[in-house]
Specification:
Distance between the termini: 36 Å
Helix content: 25-40%
Largest sheet: 7 strands, mixed
Order of helices and strands: HHEHEHEEHEEE
Strand order of the largest sheet: 3-2-1-4-5-7-6
CATH superfamily: Vaccinia Virus protein VP39
Strand content: 15-25%
Low-confidence stretches: none
Number of domains: 1
Mean pLDDT: 90
Bound molecules: S-adenosylmethionine
């Protein structure tokens, strides 16, 4: 649960509830939006996005133990029908339905994801990255403590070159 993900792209680092709230407010998640977490861990951000921000949440996680607990936790929170968690590799996952794409990965994993993933995303997608900025891309918004970065493809960002 802790060691395996390090080899695939990102370590395990559980977030405090107030940090999850901060991330979702920063992303300005709206009711009915599709919120996607690549490497969703135990699904806590997804579950909060659905329970408190009325989003439809999808996520992918490589660790089967975390997937088990994420699905269980979603059912316990009575959002099992609105939080869909896939067990698999985030590099093979289809994020094309995402209105908000949330990432808490390492620079190495991000470098592997970008720019290829941009071809699969909606032009209107908001990409929110926690702790790691996206190299070579200009964020539209950065949190005061510089731990959250928001990118929008349709706001003149040079990443539009890849659409
Ligand atoms: C830093 S945690 C973030 C968890 C969650 N997104 C959050 O914000 O609380 C990174 C997660 O990515 C998962 N992960 C790492 N590499 C992955 C891969 N290639 N495919 C799917 N999940 C992966 C890890 O197992 C871990 O749960």
């Amino acid at each position: 649960m802790v060691v395996l993900p390090i080899f695939f792209g990102a370590p395990w680092h559980p977030l405090l509830p107030r940090t999850i709230q901060r991330i979702l407010r920063f992303a300005e998640v709206r009711p009915g939006e599709n919120f996607c977490d690549l490497g969703c861990g135990e699904g806590r951000v997804l579950i909060t996005a659905t329970k408190q921000f009325s989003a439809n949440s999808i996520g992918v996680e490589i660790d089967p133990i975390k997937v088990y607990f994420a699905r269980l936790w979603a059912r316990i929170n009575r959002v099992g029908d609105k939080v869909v968690i896939t067990r698999g590799n985030l590099f093979d996952f289809d994020p094309s339905s995402a209105d908000v794409l949330y990432l808490y990965l390492t620079h190495q994993a991000m470098d592997q994801l970008f720019p290829e993933i941009l071809k699969k995303l909606k032009p209107s997608v908001r990409i929110v990255s926690y702790r790691f900025c996206l190299r070579g891309m200009d964020p539209q918004k950065v949190s005061e403590d510089k731990t959250l970065f928001l990118y929008q493809l349709n706001k003149g960002n040079k990443i539009n070159n890849y659409q």
